[in-house]
Amino acid sequence: MSENTPDLRSFIGAVPPAGDLAGPVGIPLGPRQSLCGDIDMRIGLDGTWYYLGSPIGRKELVKLFSTVLHRDDAGDHWLLTPAEACRIRVEDAPFLAVAAEVSGGDQVQNITFRTNIDQTVALGADHPLRVDIDPETQEPRPYVGLDRGLEARLTRSVYYQLVDLAVEEIADGAHMYGIWSGGRFFSIGRVEE
Fold first, then answer.
1. What stretch of H or E contains 141?
2. pTM
3. In terms of residue numbers, what domain contains 133?
């Protein structure tokens, strides 16, 4: 195991019987990876990482764990090292997009997000934007796609920055508000009739 790969053995709780645990859906495990089961680690709605109910206060440790975090095809989140696969709970998205930098304008505009773990990602074909509507509040919940099936939820201030940049376009036959980045148009809402 390399020195940059977390050793998850200290985080592993009781492992359920082999018949009761399925591995990551759509992510094959390597021949040396053991399936450890669920560990008492979660990522809260605000992007705080917790272990045994206590926040992990060291940002460097969170960044290290983030390098082995994956989301499988079933939507479960896994810490996958060369030796172990452990499932963790994520309340929404594991990361927050806390800042946006805009360059250019109109259809040649580029938007780069910075996450709460200082990762940068350029909005475009490989890292698309999607906006869900909260069923209870009817408020938008915007996300940018990251690598390994992960996402970062845009903070309210970052989303409002995008709203200020929004233009009206016709997308899929409907009048939509959205933004351009990386040569693509990303819808953020329908134009009201």
1. strand 140-145
2. 0.85
3. 95-190
